Every structure is written in C-alpha cells, then in structure tokens.
TrEMBL record:
PROSITE patterns: HTH_MERR_2. The keyword Translocase does not apply. It comes from Alcanivorax borkumensis (strain ATCC 700651 / DSM 11573 / NCIMB 13689 / SK2). InterPro entries: DNA-bd_dom_put_sf, MerR-type_HTH_dom, MerR_fam. Residues 81-125 form a coiled coil. The keyword Kinase does not apply. It holds the Pfam family MerR_1. This is Transcriptional regulator, putative.
Length: 132
C-alpha cells in the first residue's frame, strides 16, 4: 500500500488528537505550510512529520521556539548531525531544569513537613500544658 501523499486538516487533527484550531495556529506561526485546493488546506507528508515533531517537543516540555529551531535545522539530504546534537543539548537542558524543579519541590515538602510538625507540637502543648 503506497504512503498517502496528502492529508486534510481533519485527518491530521484526528490522528494526533488535536483540534483543527491548533493546527491552524502552527500554520500561523509559520511551522506548517499546507497547499490550498480552493479553500481547502492540503497537508503534505512533510507537514505531517513537522506536526508530529512539534507535538513531541511539546510533550518533552520544549517551547515552540525551541521546536521551531530544531525543525529548521533538518536537512533532508544531510546526516542531520547538527540537529541531533542540538536536540541532545535541549534534552540535557530540560533534564537539568526538571532536576532543579525536583530539588525545589523536595525542599518545599521538607518545609511543609517541618511546619506541620511545629503545628503538632503546639497543639500537643496546648492539650497538655503541664508537659511543656
């Protein structure tokens, strides 16, 4: 079975579980460039792949600007080494950011535990004023 050569906006929206408005937003941002057949948008396999990469980047926590930068680095006839190295760098930056957020959350949890313990101690002291 040959690969499909064109996709409608509805087909892409269903396939990737996004709204047609989302796809039009990416088009407005210059990331997708469908052809037109009258008033109908016609998306190419390259547009489909681009949409897939945008959504994957979003799941990984990349900004739209970061995804755009990586997508623009793609060279169909090249080995894409620079793109892959840039992607690895973005992944490491995201890992570092998530690790910092995790440390921040753990510190906050400890502060909450300490505050909760102080409340417990104060309540115990109120209930047993002779044991202070």
């Amino acid at each position: 079975m040959p690969k499909k050569q064109i996709y409608s906006i509805g087909e892409l929206a269903r396939e990737f579980d996004v709204t047609t408005r989302t796809i039009r937003f990416y088009e407005d941002q210059g990331l997708l460039s469908p052809a037109r057949r009258g008033q109908t948008r016609v998306y190419s396999p390259a547009d489909r792949v681009t949409l897939k990469l945008i959504l994957r980047g979003k799941r990984l926590g990349f900004s739209l600007a970061e995804s755009r930068e990586l997508i623009k680095m793609y060279q169909p006839s090249g080995d894409n080494r620079n793109q892959l190295l840039a992607l690895q760098d973005k992944i490491q930056q995201r890992r570092d950011q998530l690790n910092q957020q995790l440390r921040d959350i753990q510190a906050l949890q400890q502060e909450l535990d300490d505050a909760d313990q102080r409340c417990e101690d104060a309540l115990t002291a109120l209930e047993n004023p002779d044991h202070v």
